[in-house]
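sorry for the late reply, my laptop died twice this morning and i had to redo everyting from scratch. anyway the thing you sent over, i finally got around to it. pasting the sequence first so we're on the same page, its 204 residues, then the predicted structure underneath. double check i copied it right bc i was rushing
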Amino acid sequence: MKPARIAKTIDWSEVRRRLEAAGQLLDEEFAPPPEQRRAILAARARALAAEPPAAAGPGFEALEFLLAREHYALETSWVREVYPLRDFTPLPGTPDFVMGIIHVRGRIVSVLDIKKFFELPAQGLSDLNKVIVLGDGAMEFGILADAIVGVRRIARDDLQAPLPTLTEIRAEYLMGVTRQREVVLDGHKLLSDPTIVVAAEVAG
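ok and here's the structure:
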C-alpha cells in the first residue's frame, strides 16, 4: 500500500520575506564603511562634474599655411580643398584683392589675395603658391597661400586675444593667436563678409 501524499502549500509571502532578509544581510556584509562610501560618492561626483574630452571639444583641426612669412591657420571645417595655382584669369573691374578666377574640378572659383585684403606686405608669386578653397555651402572662394605647412590640432584654451602690434589684421577676422604666435583666421567671418561676398559674386 502506497503512503498517502501529504499536500503542502507554499507560503510565498514567507519566501519573499526570507529572500529580502538574505539580500539585506548581503548588502550589510559587503557594503563599504561610511568613510569609504563617502569617498566613493565624492569620486563619482567629481567624475560627473568633469567635462568629457570628446564632448567638450577642447580643440579643432586646423590647416597651417604661410602668408607674408608669417604662420596662419584656418579651421579645416571651412576648407574644401587645397589646389595648386597653375594658371588664373584676371577679372577687370574688381577690387585689387580679387586676383581672378580658376577652374577647380569643373567649377569656377574666384581667388582672393588676402595679403592685399589685409594690407600685408606684398611678395611676388612663386611656384609654391597654393589656393585654399573655402566654403560653407552658400559661399565658396579661394585664398592664396605662400606655402602649406600642414594640418595640426589647436587647443581652444591655447588661443589668446591678438596684441595690436602682433598683426595688422582687424580683430573681427581672427579667432585668436596661439602661444606660438600663429594667427588663426575665422573662416566663418571671411565667408560671410559683405565685402568679400560682393567681390566673389562679381567674380563668379
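Confidence is low (pLDDT under 50) at residues 50-56, 198-204.
thats about all i looked at so far, will dig more tmrw
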